[in-house]
Write a structure and sequence with these properties.
heterodimer; A: 327 residues; mainly beta; 14-stranded mixed sheet; two-stranded antiparallel sheet; 13% helix; disordered N terminus; B: 318 residues; 16-stranded antiparallel sheet; 11% helix
Chain lengths: 327, 318
Amino acid sequence: MLNTFSRTILLFCLSSLSQAQLVPIDERELSNTTGQAFINIDRSSSASQNLDFTKLTFGLDVKTSLNADLLELGKYDVAGEAAGSADIKISDFALGHIDENGTLVPFEISDPFIELAFEDVGGKQNLAGVRLGFGGALGKLSGNIEYLTGNIDVGIRGVGRSIYDKAGFFQDILLAAAGVRNNSILSAGAELVDKDTGLSDRFRAQYVGMTNGQNLSCDQNCGALSFLLDLDFTSSQGCGVLGIDTCFPLTNFKSLDIGDNGNKSEGLFLSFQTKNIAWVDGNTSTPTSRGAFMNIPNGGITVNFDQAFNGTPRARTKYVDPYFGGN
Amino acid sequence: MMINYFKDATALLLILSSQLSYSDLEPLNDSNLSDVDGAGIGLVLEDFVFNAGESVNDGGTFEISGLQTSADEDVVIGISQFYIAGSGSNRGTNVISNPVNIGRLTNPFNLELRDGNDVGVVNKAVFEFAAPKKINGSRMSERPDLGIRFDLEIDGTRYQSLENHIESLSIDGSYIRLWGGNNRMEGELALNIYTPNIEFFACDNTGSNCGNTVSFKDVSIELELGKGDYQPVTFEVDSGGNFIFNVATLQGKCTSINGSGGCNSGTGTGYAELSEFYTSGPSTNVYINDVVVGGQSFGSTTIDNLQIQYLEVTSHDL
């Protein structure tokens, strides 16, 4: 009897403890629940290219610091290119860096998107391209860029002294005659080039520099004859101006600052396409070539002449970093 | 008889005294729980087939709605077919008569409570859901085909379908581990994907007249996120309804920073743990042997030893 009684007491005790319980949401209540609108899907067409685009944009803010031994896309043999080369090959790739105080400074990305391009061929929708892009990007991109297919337009801006440091006696005279002083502010644009020809080369490039016919511009503290810089004899030909190199190995640029004066820059993307496609962002159209393609937009990277001539050092990307003696 | 009477009286006394003292069941603490080592539960689905969507025997439509374009037009993504079947499903046309075993009795999917000390989570119990183990590079589970067809509709107009088919998929060696830490749920994740072929192609708004196929051949993806309680992964939702996915930072793991921001070697500085992280910590490796579009080869793709030192992903309204 006591045994039965004790069980009754036990049940009573348990029921006194269960005073609240979870109640499932019914279907009607659940149907009123909506998630955050962090995804957009857009569709557009380009009649001139006979292409339709479907773009999936994610409302995300991403901060990251990462390292990879190798990033290699589109490795296949192409006539006229080195055997074993790839459309894009970057070893010791990293996003973000660590400053001298040990603070991890992340690479920032906003509103990443995936876009598909479809070509209408006889009523069939051929998938012609895909790209992973970013609404904005800011931070250091590090790596040994061995091959790059794409745009990596670099702005070069610095003082005349850096050019005098590289010039010989005869070149000094020509520069002085052209009104370039030590404190003159000079600028030039640079893009992927073929070092042997000085021509623009966006496919599996290994050099960045001034293309044939491009001139230095004198922006400040210029002499009276600085207009001479605009003449043909002072334009870059075959990767040289007045005998001074104007093309530099991509591997010289160990760390690149992505962004526009501390703000996120638009237009950074990685794409793959089966034909030449011009990807459109607002009013900007970026032509790309068949295969893998990486676009780093205008204004994304600016270096001074010392950095152009000598390269940019690699930023620390690990707390135990082989590029810094192993610690 | 006397002994039984004594037992009953003792039980009653204990119950009543517990009621009077307002004590109730207490959760085992992590230290105690970490000593629990159950055999876990193995899951195997034999002769399994899944086939759903509006194009399947007049089945219902699964739709994702509520999306918008940047011009605020309504977007609906319909899923007209989603299937899991045995190898040789032929892009979802041979499904019902083509079952597959998900896991095997000798190598099932496992639900298990593990001793955290064995997996880098000190003195805590760790919940683990794991796919069959990957042993010496072989695949221990059977390999299903999997596919999905999306239909895109914008502002009431159906535009096109995008189909994706994965052949002979294996996720052996994948797992998710969860534990309680810092008043929140923490975890780590490993996701392996092995398949000889992933295909994408688009069709017109009727699901026919399909275009060129983009094939990713011999795909191997091995993704690892988080490293026990050294670098936990968290997923939270803030008061605004936006989610925050975080892989903890390595900042602060070193107690002796040198002049360039690196970690000084020495006992107790964290140098050894950081070195171990960089040499054998969680990493992601991707290899695609070939990308083929309409018969044209675009070569291989490799991402080797990608390690995340910090990741924070926060969603926001567009």
